[in-house]
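tool_call predict_complex ligand=zinc ion
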Amino acid sequence: MSDLRDLYQELILDHTKRPRNFGQLATANRKAEGFNPLCGDRVTVHLELDGDTVREIHFEGSGCAISTASASLMTEAIKGLRVEDARALFEQVHKLVTGASGPNGGGPSLGKLVVLAGVRDYPIRVKCASLPWHTLCAALSGGDETVTTE
Ligand code: ZN
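tool_result ok
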């Protein structure tokens, strides 16, 4: 588990310093906003859906390191997926960060997202890590209301 912890810290730092797919998306046709009042994290997820495929995904916002890194990792993982696969990945990540599945319980498809299991050591951070994913789900559903983790 110490390897996972090192990897967690390394990846979180990397994605916090250099968030991937950060900023507006001119071609977006879906978006949703999320807010985690517990920590003050705000995130907006922009999606370009092409049929049932996520062609492009960007995020914006201001939040703590965990929410930023989780959003950044999420955009890398979701880009190019079909909508149903994106939803399935959300379910897996949600189980992972809430501890409903073991560290390897998410299956091989999670890839480096398994580092998000690191938030289990910091229960208050679980909502930070899951916020971008809940917001993604709202964007996929086409809802325009703000998602909160409460
Ligand atoms: Zn946070």
